[in-house]
Design a protein that fits this description.
mainly alpha
């Protein structure tokens, strides 16, 4: 009952896929038996996407990103403050007309 069973929905580990004309028998099912194994291997995203080396961002790019984030935060804060202020003014006018 507590036996571990492999989950068929799990993704494959990211590793290089060799170009081969045949697949292991464990991967072949009825749908794959009808298609050619070479074409299904060529559609593998690990083969399509090139490997990329990590390049750290320069100090200039980090500074520009920080300035943009700060400006966006300040402008967002101003917009929220204006909206809350306008709602407070509208609520005060509605309350004043309701009282008088």
């Amino acid at each position: 009952m507590n036996d571990m069973q492999p989950d068929p929905k799990l993704t494959a580990p990211v590793e290089a896929v060799p170009l081969s004309d045949s697949l292991p028998e464990s991967f072949v099912d009825l749908d794959q038996a009808l298609a050619s194994p070479r074409s299904s291997n060529l559609n593998d995203p690990r083969r399509i996407l090139p490997s990329q080396e990590y390049k750290p961002a320069s100090v200039w790019k980090k500074f520009v990103a920080l300035l943009g984030l700060g400006a966006f935060s300040i402008l967002g804060g101003l917009v929220i403050t204006l909206i809350v202020g306008l709602l407070a003014i509208a609520a005060a006018l509605i309350l004043q007309t309701a009282i008088s």
